[in-house]
Amino acid sequence: MKASGRPEPDAPIRSRRYKVGQQEIVRGDCLRVLRRMQADSVDVVVTSPPYNIGLSYRSYPDRKEEAHYLDWMMEVAAGLQRVLRPDGSFFLNISGSSAQPWLPFELAVRLRSLFVLQNHIAWVKSISVGEDSFGHFKPMNSKRYLHRGHEHLFHFTLNGDVMLDRLTAGVPYKDKSNIARRGHKQDRRCRGDAWFIPYETVRDRAEKFDHPGTFPVALPEQCILLHGRKEARVLDPFMGTGTTLLAAQRMACRGVGIEIDADYVAIARRRLEEDQLCTEEG
């Protein structure tokens, strides 16, 4: 989840750890925490860093010089490369803005020195089909730009050779005759690289946990499913309010979330505890 990592903290923040079931939350700067993590210890990274497009985080000014921002993200990515297992997956959700459309691609190109771009997934948040529309359309008050209905989900691996569980993360066939005609063993096919995952409708920022960039829990769930490792160790270095860890908890995975903002850490702990309680009562 988009979170409040800080490229230049005013003073080092002493790390503090919390456990909720199999989920571990670390309050601290992600660069410092990553340096202390064991190498080759993470199966899946799912994260959405600050986009550097002026979003209003609680503890992080989301407007840096572009070169500075990219250098900082490369430091984070080097830390992720070190802790990722050889067969691990790194899913990076990022978006630009209408005025800054190149930023995600600038970062992706830089990351070529550390990773292979194995898949480029379009996270479709809203779409028009014929005369109908689906998802939430954020108002766009411009005569120059189109409504932005998708974000990037870059799937990086160390060597580009990671086997994925495409069918478990897939969808049923529309035409059931394809199952026998094409010799498939089950009613599942690959979902493809355009994922329609709309936001749940919210009326105000409080319903987004006072965070400017939450993503739906279904997004990290799909990433974990696609990677296809049982009881995977999942990492989100920009945890925010804990959505990636919530997905990990629901999928019986072990999660680690890093977040610098104490209020977001408190929200993440509460969400995990409430979800755990609901599961036990159910």
TrEMBL record:
Q: Give the EC number(s) listed in the UniProt record.
A: 2.1.1.-
Residue ranges of domain DNA methylase N-4/N-6 in the record: 42-269
Question: Which superkingdom?
Answer: Bacteria
Identify the InterPro entries for this entry: DNA_methylase_N4/N6, MeTrfase_CN4_CS, RM_Methyltransferase, SAM-dependent_MTases_sf
For this protein, the record's Pfam families field holds: N6_N4_Mtase (PF01555)
In alphabetical order, the GO MF annotations are: DNA binding; N-methyltransferase activity; site-specific DNA-methyltransferase (adenine-specific) activity; site-specific DNA-methyltransferase (cytosine-N4-specific) activity
> Tell me, which GO biological process terms does this entry list?
DNA restriction-modification system; methylation
Catalytic activity field: a 2'-deoxyadenosine in DNA + S-adenosyl-L-methionine = an N(6)-methyl-2'-deoxyadenosine in DNA + S-adenosyl-L-homocysteine + H(+); a 2'-deoxycytidine in DNA + S-adenosyl-L-methionine = an N(4)-methyl-2'-deoxycytidine in DNA + S-adenosyl-L-homocysteine + H(+)
**Top-tier EC class:** transferase
Going by the UniProt record, its keywords in alphabetical order are: DNA-binding, Methyltransferase, Restriction system, S-adenosyl-L-methionine, Transferase
| Similarity annotation | Belongs to the N(4)/N(6)-methyltransferase family. N(4) subfamily.
Protein name (database record): Methyltransferase
Lineage, please? Bacteria, Pseudomonadati, Pseudomonadota, Alphaproteobacteria, Acetobacterales
